[in-house]
Amino acid sequence: MKNIAIITGASSGMGKEFAKTIEKGGRFDEVWLIARRKDNLEKISSEIPFPVKILPFDLTDRENLKRIEEMLKEEAPAVSLLINCSGFGKFSATCDNSIEVNLNMMDLNCGALMATCQMCIPYMPKGSHIINIASVASVQPIPYINVYGATKAFVLSFSRALNREMKSRGITVTAVMPFWTKTEFFDRAVAEDNKVVKKYVAMYMPSDIVSRAWRDAYRGRDVSKYGFIARSQMLLAKILPHSFVMSFWMHQQKLK
To answer: Is the pLDDT of residue 192 over 70?
Structure first.
């Protein structure tokens, strides 16, 4: 039986970093890289020391999800590692985005992530791992990054509960909680006339987030946090009233 790893959102950011450091997850007969940009996936594949299958799929298209499901049924591999990094956000008022954009964000950040987990779990042997990218944004309501933060709240809740459900099968699920991270995320999230985020308290490197995620996942932790500022913000969001947290955010970014 072929032993594989699957990485979504592998063409850039943390998905790319996970792909480049895939040896930290073990040895694989094949690595499936999933993202829309085929050229980027081909470049990254040259840095991976295992055979690579490139799948240039848009995961908001349910036909592509069906294609992955059919491939799994046909090949029946052992999926010992699944890493869900696909996702995007928008820094704007909820109603300043089109309904189509907001639905697309929910489909990718929530629906595709849930679907890939559910499709892969039947093929996961004991000792397998799922790593899902959530966000520090998941622990508090964030005006003007509202839909993105809400989708990441889903990822956090879903991942932690799924981890409990999978314990009897010996499968661990880890939600990774990045703070501001230097990736291409901002190319899509920030409008040219950015009126939302004016102050970034800290900016982390994806290599640091991913390095910590590998360690936490293989220690069986359900949540992976990196950085003092990120940890502090998560703690404060837990103990302070969310009305105060939202007001502080609005004041910090000079939003009305």
So the answer is: no
